[in-house]
Design a protein that fits this description.
The structure holds two protein chains of two kinds. Chain A is mostly helical. Chain A has helices at 14-17, 28-32, 44-47, 51-66. The longest helix of chain B is centred in the last third of the chain and has 41 residues, at 107-147. Chain B has helices at 17-30, 72-81, 93-96, 107-147; strands at 2-10, 33-35, 40-51, 54-66, 87-92.
């Protein structure tokens, strides 16, 4: 069987396309976009973020969690 | 180097916030920090998870410049020893982006802007959904009315 993989169109990085150069840890609504329903951080292969901006997002999400602005888990 | 300091206390300590700010300012200036502008209040906010059974906190943050970076651990320690401050966070301002505070727009408005951006598609969705629902309902009602008369 020759299974052909269907390639999904590549998503572009949200921050690169919007020229955002810093992710504010207080901006919870923005970071929510990059978390799934269980409040896990979405991997870049799903969000389309580039490596540099994914690092910024994860860092600010972790900061916001420590400050109780975002939750660690949603059951 | 420019930094941003965010702290919060339990909402039950809300009336002590001015005093806390003064103490923090003292700690910062004693260690060579310089506040750029006043504290910006985010205000009372619900915690994402309960902390020691408390559900609400009062948040505030300020930008500051500090030349002697080596004093940061000491500042962190001193703020941590303050019992009124539940938790705090000092980060480089460059990692946070443009100053939200000082004379500019308060944080609530920025969050509101974000909300607006998110709301627009939702509104469209909600507009289209009710219409579809209304059509569906009409059809169902007609069916029911056709069926029931006997």
């Amino acid at each position: 069987m020759n299974q052909q993989q269907i390639q999904a169109p590549k998503k572009s990085c949200y921050f690169c396309s919007n020229n955002i150069d810093a992710v504010d840890y207080k901006d919870t609504l923005l970071m929510r976009k990059f978390m799934n329903s269980q409040a896990k951080i979405v991997p870049p292969r799903r969000s389309g973020n580039c490596a540099r901006h994914q690092r910024m997002v994860t860092r600010s999400i972790k900061r916001a969690r420590a400050m109780a602005l975002l939750s660690y888990t949603i059951k | 180097m420019e930094y941003e300091l965010l702290f919060f206390t339990y909402a039950s300590n809300e009336n002590k916030v001015p005093g806390i700010k003064k103490e923090l300012e003292e700690i910062l200036t004693n260690h060579g920090g310089k506040l750029s502008g006043d504290f910006t209040d985010i205000g009372k906010r619900k915690f994402a998870y309960p902390i020691k059974r408390e559900t609400h906190g009062y948040y505030s943050f300020v930008r500051l410049t500090l030349e002697d970076t080596a004093k940061l651990p000491e500042i962190n320690k001193r703020i941590g020893l303050n019992n009124q401050v539940t938790r705090h966070l000092i980060v480089k301002a460059s990692e946070v982006g443009k100053p939200v505070s000082a004379s500019g727009t308060p944080p609530q408005e920025i969050m509101a802007e974000e909300k607006k951006i998110e709301e627009i598609p939702q509104e469209k969705a909600s507009e289209s959904k009710p219409k579809a629902n209304m059509d569906d309902l009409d059809e169902k009602l007609n069916e029911l009315l056709d069926e029931t008369p006997s």
